[in-house]
Amino acid sequence: xxxxxxxxxxxxxxxxxxxxxxxxxxxxxTGAAADLADYRATISDGVVRGGVLIGTAAFELATIGAExxxxxxxxxxIAISPASLLGAAAYVAGLIADxxxxxxxxxxxxxxxxxxxxxxxxxxxAAAQNRIMPGPGPVTEKARGELQRLASLVAPPAKAAAxxxxxxxxxxxxxxxxxxxxxxxxxxxxxxxxPAQESGSAVGAAAVEAAKSQxxxxxxxxxxxxxxxxxxxxxxxxxxxxxxxxxxxxxxQTVGRQVSYEELQPGDLVLWSGHAAMYAGDGxxxxxxxxVQLNPVRTENLGMTFRGFWRPTG
Length: 314
Known about the structure:
Residues 156-202 are annotated as: Disordered. It comes from Corynebacterium haemomassiliense. It is a single chain. With 314 residues, the protein is α+β, with helices and mostly antiparallel strands. It is 46% helix and 11% strand. It has helices at residues 15-21, 27-73, 82-130, 138-152, 199-212, 231-241; strands at 224-225, 228-229, 257-259, 269-272, 276-281, 284-288, 292-296, 306-311. The strands form two sheets. A six-stranded antiparallel β-sheet has the order 3-8-4-5-6-7, with helices on one face. Strand 6 and strand 7 (292-296) form a beta hairpin. The protein is elongated. The two termini are 28 Å apart. Mean pLDDT is 80; it is low at 191-199.
């Protein structure tokens, strides 16, 4: 399944405070970064959507072909009279015509859907290419010049430190015998282990409850709010309700740490190259299918590469 390579936008939360130190504003830079992240999410969703459409069409075409073979095989292989032979041939010809008509219907629908995806991708790509990136302002240029000036200054070499005088060596006869060793103090008991932090599991459980509240919501490509979700839109929205921001695109949601199946706890993400789901406990996961629903945990999804189980809370 084609998708964009994994990528996570840098954290720009400290940009505005740094700009304020220089009596400037970082709004243009943070705005540009946010726009680029949105463009990438749209493009990635479009690539995944196109792959899903093609995979679904291929499955439908294979089903049409298998059904044609099954029906044709049920036709009597040999007819006693020439008239019966002609009738059997006409019946098989009708089956082939029906199969061709159904296949054309699937291909026409695929062409229409892919054209819509292509238009969305073209629009998002053009917008990303036309986005004007802010260049260095006068404050930046002034700071750069000052840094270059300071770097050109050569500090005088430091004076070599005076070497300490060697210690006086006493004659062997004057050396006192070493004192007897002190009895070893009893080792202090090891500290008690710190209790495991519950914040991660609490956040994960809250994310699961948020996701469960949307069961039955229809699938909407690019949807990330109640009323319509796609797969990664549901997981990112649910974690946002729990107070934790994670990347919007499934390919970028491999955050926190990877866990094994035996370590799964509610809120852990089940990720493929183009799909995302959330572990809900008791061997079940919640995902934005058609509609949002609970399903048993699996590692196969339309031939996509399985990227493992991930705990965003670390």
